[in-house]
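Running this now, will post back.
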Amino acid sequence: MLDSVKIARRQSEIRQQLSTLAGKDKPTEEETRSMDALDGEYRTNETRYRAALIAEDGERREAGAELETRSGREWADLVASFEVRQVIGALNEGRELSGRTAEVVQELRRSGGYKGIPVPLMALEQRAGETVASGTPDPIQTRPTIDRLFPGSVAAQMGAQLISVDSGAVEWPVTTSAVTAGWAATELGNVGGPTVYATTDKALKPEHNLGIHMRISRKAMLQSGEALEQTIRRDMTGTMQAELDKAVFRGTGADGQPLGVIPGAATYGITSTAVDAEITAAVFRAAVTRFLVANAASGPGAVRLMVRPEAWNYMDDQASALPDLSEWDRLLRIITGENIAMTTNGLAAPAGSPSAVSALLTTAAGGVAPIFVGIWGAVDLIRDPFSDAQSGGLRLTALTTADVTVARGAQLEVLTGLELAGA
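Update: finished.
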């Protein structure tokens, strides 16, 4: 029982006893002493009651915060124990899912429809502390599978925000009007206006499906054992990461692809500047200045840059006007190294004569991400039981739905025609 409730009940008892004693015309000396004692206890209890309420209010707030975050933590704990190898066994051999893996699959099925077995995105992440069982005594031991090489992800480095969507579309209303202030020209004159306050909705829609098709031989399943879970998870993650990165920046908007940032610059209202000159630090300094003038960034430290490795190679070899500094060193004085991302996946390879590349600059103005990437639901893992039946192999398809949008084009700028040769 709460202390405040106990004190409140005691106060009620004291009031009842005092009312009985106060009704007597000639109370005895003992009754008078009792009234004094009860009155002192009542006043003391008032102070204790207020203190108890304050303490219990803090406990209630902590308990409320615990209840609000408990469900999220419980789901994260379940997903952390999700076993991809159980899904593979269920698809390949008809085994029943058990434990936390079965709970996660049941919960995902309640929230959406899947043809195959749903796999949460978080389960594809490589988990710390995972080990591979040691090989059994044998003349030949199969070691852990060597992974493929994938380009590093740059979407997160460029400030893109990943949005998880259960169903339907997500919209962001963006102010597009230019409401202005005006002074009254005379004593009785009107101020300027009114100007219409208008917004434009930027939507993420589930219209683009990304599929990963994987064929696993019987030999691979027998060799890998439990290591197969790690291999499949890493391979799916790398493939999906590379293709999503490519779609975010270079998606054509055709053939099922979402419209990427660079091809869709005009659609998203992004400034595209044709430099058509040798690439130097001054080119990027001018772009940062344009961000500052447009109030899209508070300083050079708020700007992120994405370039090709060939741009770094050329600039680092070009001496600048400053002693002992290359053009790349001058660039690092404008944009810090941690805000520069190099990619061969997000930007097209050098082309033209002279050879030229493109670059992208972004900034998070007012805490709003420059790019939004929507992912719908979990990864839908489906098995094809017929195509490889004769060889005893396993064919899997992982489906996910994603989309890309830009809320404010003023937070991005594309630079084209950055030549890798002098005039």
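The two ends are 85 Å apart (CA to CA). More later if anyone needs it.
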